[in-house]
Amino acid sequence: MAEHRKIVVVGGVAAGPKAAARARRLDPHADITIVEKDSILSYAGCGLPYYISGMVEDRRDLMATGIGVLRDPAFFAKVKNIKALTLTEATAIHRQEHELEVRDLKSGEVGRLPYDKLILATGADPISPPIPGADLGRVLRLKQLEDADVFRELLAANACPQVTIIGGGPIGLEMTEAMVHRGRAVTIVEMLPHVLTMIDADMAHLLEKRMRELGVRIMTSTRVERLEGDEEGNVAKVVTSAGEVPAQLVLLSIGIRPNVGLALDAGLLIGPSGAIHVNEYMQTSDPDIFAAGDCAEKACVVAGVPCFLPLGSVANKEGRVAGSNAAGYNERFAGVTSTAAAKVFDWNVGRAGMSTAQAKTLGIPTVSATVAGGDKPHYYPDSKGMVLRLIADARDRRLLGIQGVGMGEVIKRVDVAVTALTAGMTVDDVADLDLAYAPPYSEAMDLLAHGANTLRNKLDGLVRMLNAGELKARLSAGEAPFLLDVRTPDEYAAGRLAGSVLVPLGALAGRAAEVPRDRPVVAYCKTSLRAYEAARILAGLGYDNVEVLEGGVMAWPYELESG
Ligand SMILES: Cc1cc2nc3c(=O)[nH]c(=O)nc-3n(C[C@H](O)[C@H](O)[C@H](O)COP(=O)(O)OP(=O)(O)OC[C@H]3O[C@@H](n4cnc5c(N)ncnc54)[C@H](O)[C@@H]3O)c2cc1C
User: Fold this and answer.
1) CA 45 to ligand 1 centroid distance, Å
2) Full-model pTM
3) I need a surface site. Which of 184, 340, 457, 518 has the fewest CB within 10 A?
């Protein structure tokens, strides 16, 4: 009788168990072993902030199937016929012998597991910054369930009224929400000029504005110099380049790094992103070794460059492909569109594809359009606002990227755009998509289609527009355009761009003489629909100096003047 195929998987959280389970489904006879150095298997890491906030009450829910069965070694053995070795660390790969060296972390015993196919799903770990005091008590990282347990214990003990989050990435922001939910005063310290670098600065500033309204202190362009402790050795304050912040609990969330040590020591190729190089079959430079999940490099299909993109969604897809191929199949993983989503308090944030800045580094000329509006018609009871930005290649009109923020259903629009990005569609194709419509779901002309049409108008030279970030940069550089507010007097009084002049749209034709012809004019309203009309009226009167502020006041994250 032929020997059964031996498949060994290193890593037991997302990509690893997915690969093992897929391989089992395709090859009922294979010997499949998962090696995991931690004590817990196959838990929902993405759910940790919700467990810490208390929204998820029972930690078992993060480790159990939808019907409440715990995914422990007994489950893997009984239900999946997969041997799961927890508290077992893979220490070396002997490629010639096709053996994985492992150490039992309880007994210290070292052994070898023979393999025909090996799958590396070793994930990524939080970066430990070289900050003095980072080893103080109550300075935590968030990666595993045990980390979340420590947060829960401190919160349950009613300790740590002031929390500082170092790093304004998605995990930092989700944890900010969790901490505020648990009644803590939160300060975010971010070294870069804005939080969430996955979106553009002005889009991120909109989110920051909302978070500040909800009581969060955000210190951007601020470097942490050191952490200082109390007499018990617990953190007491964060000393930054902008002053001291009292804090009894600190989360370090400045990013993560792929775990490539095993692969590196075995001589496997590491890609330019720092993650393990794989081909579209998830094979490393050794055809009998696959890599999947956070430890593996991704092909970014829009930018056409390799990248490190540590996401659970991708880890599961890659794990499936690696599992299939380890079981003798020939499946391909097409790559990623760099799609990401986060919920931050009552706002949704999403992005996919490239940003304008990234396109620039690749030498791609772009045009972008930013639009603001509701996710449903204004008359429908729970219509919520959002701001979308679409980015296209100026040469061939191909959609390159999308970003969205707001209370509205941003992620639905991002997901549609992901399909367009994957298919290589132009903005004209996107504008023509026959999207589902009824008032509870969208506007008759969905904001995504409106954004695509705005982008078409810009590409066709029908309108000159600029976004909030671009106008702010010009104002900061000392330019003084005539700011034309075409809203109603009430809207103007409630909040306007500093120094702007009110000429309501309905009165514009009769009062056009108030608008100068010899100076740049920027027209704006609430979202930019009325401003666009105003620009057309002025163009009809021979004005060639009028630009429209994209997204209007809704997409303006900076100061407003009122009264
Ligand atoms: C708080 C938080 C929130 C998140 N939210 C989201 C989200 O909303 N959306 C999203 O897409 N992603 C999210 N992620 C990311 C997501 O959890 C990861 O992308 C995903 O877990 C990656 O899975 P993985 O299996 O590749 O690696 P990991 O989850 O890192 O698992 C790797 C495992 O390998 C083990 N291991 C490593 N080396 C060895 C060794 N030598 N021997 C034995 N075992 C080893 C490790 O102990 C670890 O358990 C979040 C992550 C965190 C921490």
Assistant:
1) 7
2) 0.95
3) 518
